[in-house]
Amino acid sequence: VSAAFWEHLRYLGLQDFPCGLGSWNKSRFDVHRSPSRSQPGQEEAVMLDEESPEVLMELLRDPCSPWALPPDCSSQDQYLREVAVLAPELICGSNIFKVLRTLRIVGKGVEEVDEGLLQLQKLEELILSANQISRINSANLPRTLKVLELCCNAVADLQDLCTQPPPELQHLGLGYNKLRGPSQDKYLTVDFWPNLVSLDLSFNSFTDLLELISQLSSLQKLRILVLQGNPLALIPTYRGFLVDSLPKLSILDDIHIGPDERHQFQGLAKHPELIRSEAQLVVSIGEIKGVPDPSTHQQQEVDSQAPVITYSYCVTYEF
């Protein structure tokens, strides 16, 4: 991830025009100016060769400018470039580690979260979606993190992540990974995430609803939970059981939990026998191609001695 981070900074061009220090703004940041430079005539002549901060900022913000970032860039990227115009000394060298609060490295083939991240002393939001991360060493995560998004990776084990988890983390995104219960359920408790408000476990392989709820119930600050896409979500009483078991939950699977729904499922958590370990799926076949149609054959006469030909088929569904 450190390599991807530095590559991203090079892409932003924080040291190149219209950012950074150069002939386009040297008089504003030249701390060694001689007294003669301050004379009105000379000062005006020097400024003729430079650009004002307003002009430089316009070059960054105008969508038609060749120096503008693409429309889908993050607000953090735009912020860094504007800082590089107004106060370039803040992002020179290691100073940038004190400025960054959000780091977004998406779809860069990152496989490892290395200790280089610890240099980001004020990092609060780390987004590493759509990479190839399978394990995360929590010792390499800044302690200041409040948001950790790992959607669409290959995370199958939370043990390393829970060794020294960031104590102030409020959102943990683990959707579209390879997590399975019950071996991973034990890592989803208040012992590891005392301040967790939002948890995304969607599209993994959790199957035991009762065991998962027993662990999640310890997260007293949890308000947002996403479990859709897991096998346990096929259980008929899935939503009602979760709503009644986690009374402080406000949003489940991106749907707000209102007072009426909570009242409707009141008391359901006291009847675990209603949780079935099976699900029913009804498939309707609209059309089949490539097999003989019996209706096209001539109807056999009643007294015919011709043999009767029958066809049977086996249809297999793979999920």
UniProtKB/TrEMBL annotation:
InterPro entries: Leu-rich_rpt (IPR001611), Leu-rich_rpt_typical-subtyp (IPR003591), LRR_dom_sf (IPR032675). One of its GO terms (cellular component) is cytoplasm. It comes from the Eukaryota. It holds the Pfam family LRR_1. Keywords: Leucine-rich repeat, Repeat. SMART domains: LRR_TYP. The keyword 4Fe-4S does not apply. This is LRC43 protein. It comes from Semnornis frantzii.
